[in-house]
Fold:
Amino acid sequence: MLERLILFDLDGTLIRSLNGFIAFNEAIYKTFGLSGDIRTVIPDGNTDPLILEDIFTAANMKVEITEEKWRAFAQNLYESYTDAIQRGLMRVFPLPGVLELVRKLAEVKGIYQGVVTGNLEKTGRLKLEAAGLGAYLGLGAYGSDSRNRNVLPGIAKERWAGVIGKPLPSRHCTIVGDTPKDLDAARKNHMRCLLVGSGRYAVEELGLLKPDACLPDFTDTKAVVEALLG
Structure:
């Protein structure tokens, strides 16, 4: 039996968050007393630590993000997301075909599903639960593990090796994402990559990067499974 590890990005790949910027900006103000706006930067493919730095740079603000401030921001972000979801100000939902895909993969023996995302772990898991994906995904690597996205696949692989009880060859691991940075992370870790045109980048643009597979979305479950396992 050939064992495979599928590592999914979250935003733009599996899920979409409506009005998530409200909670993110609120957490910035709570933590730093400054009005920063995530809509002034392109967050796609970045980790939350780098997104925060980009926001301050775009606003020409010189802000020292100490370890204490970072921990406070992470907690404030989790609380702001939680409150926004509970109040209905923010809605997180799976993209078309995603629920069907993760359910199908869960039925295949030897297939493990995890995440590699720039979200912090607490907020990433919160989004997964809100989208109805928490039962299928969670273990992996997050922006709270490293600000460098290219480091995350290796962390995720090691964590899954601990669960499986043996290491998985990198060539048996696949990164699934919606940005060129997902492909870069896969290549840096000698992993396969499937890119999907459900985020900021069109499928035609992503296809020019020559990932191992490229699809417009996840609506054809059979085609996605074949691309992942072929």
In short: The chain has two domains: 4-16+94-229, 18-86. The mean pLDDT is 95.
